[in-house]
Amino acid sequence: MAGFVARRIAKGILVLLAIVVLNFFLIRLAPGDPALVMAGEAGAGDEVFVAQLREKFALDQPLPSQLAAYLRSIVGLDLGYSVRQQMPVATLIGERLPATLLLTGTAFLVSLSLGVLLGSLAARRAGTLADTAITGMALLFYATPLFWVSLMAIILFSVRLEWLPSFGFETVGAGYTGLARAADIVRHLVLPALTLGLFFMAVYVRMTRSSMLEVSRLDFVKTARAKGLTEGVIQRRHILRNALLPVVTLAGLQAGTLVGGAVLTETVFAWPGIGRLMYEALLQRDYNLLLGVFVVSSAMVLIFNLVTDVVYRAVDPRIEVAR
Amino acid sequence: MNNAVPLSAPAPARRRGPLAAFLRHPGAVIGLVILALVVAAALLAPILYPTSPWRMVQRPFVPPFTLERVPLGTDALGRDIAAGLMHGAGVSLIVGLVSTLAALVIGVPLGALAGYLGGRVDDALMRFTELFQTVPSFALAIVLVAILQPSLSSMILAIALVSWPPVTRLVRGEVLSLRSREYVQAAIVTGQTTFTILRREVLPNTLSPIVVLASLMVATAILLESSLSFLGLGDPNRMSWGFMVGAGRTVIRQAWWITAFPGVVILLTVLALNLIGEGLNDALNPRLSRER
C-alpha cells in the first residue's frame, strides 16, 4: 500500500509539473509583454517593479531559461505578486482555500451519499413510479445550469421564504463564537453546497442505478438467492458493494468538474473561496492571480484523485493496483 | 465533464431500422421537438426581431405577460427579454456545434493513432490525454478565454480544448478492439498505408458511438458556453442566454423574470440534447443498450 501511494504521488507531481509548464505558455499567450501581464497591466506605471519581474523570470533570456526561472519560483511556492490586491498570490489563495475545501467537500459528500441512496432505490424498484420519478429528476438536474439553479434557490429560500442567508460565509458583525459561529456557518453553507451538489447527485444516481441493474444479473447474485439469503443482505452486501466500484471511479473523475463548478457557486453566493477569487481576478484581468488559482485548483484535483484511488483500493480489496 | 455515461432504460430489443428505434423512444422525440423549436428561434430571430437585442425598447422592469409588445418583459435597461432569448439561441447552437466539431477534429485522430499504433505512441498520447482530463476543465476554459480575450472564436477554442479527452478515450478503445479483426488484418496484408486503413476500414466502424458522444458533448458545450457568458466572458457583441442570467443577477430581488426565462431556455435545450443522445444510443448501439 505504501509503495502504491508513493508511486501515485510521484505521478501526481509529474502531472502538476506539466500543468505548470502549460501555465508558463499561457502567460505568453496573453496579449503584450509577459512582464506587464504578470504585473497586472495597471501596475505598468511602476517601472522598477516591471524591471524586477523581468530579471526574476529571466524575460530577457531565451525561452528555456525563462521556463527554468518560472519553475524555480513555483517550486519555492512563490506564485507571484498580485499588484491589484497588493498581496502575494500564494497568501491570497491560502486565505481563501479553507472555504473552498469546506464547500466542495460538503457538496461532494452530500451528492455522493444522496446519489447512491436514490440510485439504489431506483434500481431496486426498477420500472415502478418511484424509479421513473428518480430518473426523471436526475435527468432534469443533469441539464440544469449550476449558476441558474443557485439564483433560483436564492429567490425561493432567501427572498421568498427567508429561511436561509443568500450570501457570505457567516453573518458579518454578529460576533458569534464557538458553536454558535459553527451553526451560523452551516446555515450559510446549505444553499451553496446543495446547489453545487445537484448536478453531481444526478450523475451518481444514473451511474448507481445502471451499475446495480448490471450487477444484479450476474451469476453470484443468483447463487446468493439460491442460498436463501434475505433480499436486504443480497442488495447491500452483494449488489451494492460491487456496483459502487464504477461510481467511485466516476467520483474521482468528477473532481475537476466540482472544483470548476465552485467558481460559479462561489460567485453567486459570494462565498469567500478560491473560486470567487478567480472571478475577482477575471474582472480585474489580474492574470497572475488567475493562473495561480488555476495551478492550485489543479493541485487540489490531483490530491482528490489520489484519495479516491486509495479509497478504491479499500472498497475493493481484490484489486491489485498495477503500477 | 464526464458525459459519456449513456444510461437509459433497457429498451425492448426488436429488429427494426435505427430510425424506427429512435422514434420509438418518447424522450428522444420530445428532445427533437424542443431542439427544432430552438433552431427555428435562431433562424427567425433576425426576421421577428430585426433590431439589435441590445436596444432599449420599453421602460425597464416591465413584468412578463403585461405588455403585448414585450411578452416576456424587459430587463434593467429596458431591453426586450423575448428578443434576447431568440437572438441568444443562435449563439448557443453555433458554439455548441462548432466547438464539438473542433473537439472531434482533435480527439478522433489522437484516439485512432493511440489505439492503432499502440506501444510508446499509445502511452505518450494517453498520458497527454490524462493531463487534460485531470485539469479542472471549467477553470482552464476561463483562463483560456480571459487570456485570448472574450470572443465567439476564443470561446469555441477554449471549449474544444477542454472537451476532446473523452473522444480520444472512446475512439482509442473502439480502434483497439477493431484492430485485430480479420478485414483490418487483410487490409494490412494488401499493403495499404496506415492512413488509408484508418480512414477506410477502422474509423467508419466507430461512427455510431462517436455520434452518440457528440450529441451529449453539444449539450455540455452549451452549458459551458452559458457558464462562461454568465461570468462575463461571452462575445461582447452578441446577446447570449448566459449573459442575460448574469445581467439579471444583481436585480434578482426586484425582477425574477430577467434571470428565470433564459435559465429555463438553457435547461430545456440541454435536456433536449441529452434526450436525443440517449435515443441515438438506443437506436445505434442496440447491443449496448440491451446489455444495460
Automatic annotation (TrEMBL), chain A:
Transmembrane segments: 12-30, 97-118, 139-159, 185-205, 243-269, 289-308
InterPro entries associated with the record: BPD_transp_1_N (IPR045621), MetI-like (IPR000515), MetI-like_sf (IPR035906)
Primary residence: membrane
Location in or out of the cell: Cell membrane
Membrane disposition: Multi-pass membrane protein
GO cellular component, one term: plasma membrane
Any matching Pfam family: BPD_transp_1_N
ABC transmembrane type-1 domain ranges (all copies): 97-312
Keywords: Cell membrane, Membrane, Transmembrane, Transmembrane helix, Transport
PROSITE patterns according to UniProt: ABC_TM1
Swiss-Prot/TrEMBL GO biological process terms: transmembrane transport
CDD domains: TM_PBP2 (cd06261)
Protein family (similarity comment): Belongs to the binding-protein-dependent transport system permease family.
Annotated protein name in UniProt: ABC transporter permease
From TrEMBL, chain B:
One of the GO BP terms on file: protein transport
Domain ABC transmembrane type-1: 89-277
GO CC, one annotated term: plasma membrane
Keyword Transmembrane set for record: yes
Keyword annotations: Cell membrane, Membrane, Peptide transport, Protein transport, Transmembrane, Transmembrane helix, Transport
Entry membrane topology: Multi-pass membrane protein
Principal cellular location given in the protein's record: membrane
UniProt subcellular location: Cell membrane
Transmembrane annotation, as ranges: 28-49, 93-118, 138-162, 210-234, 255-276
Family from the record: Belongs to the binding-protein-dependent transport system permease family.
Protein name: ABC transporter permease
Organism for this UniProt entry: Methylobacterium variabile
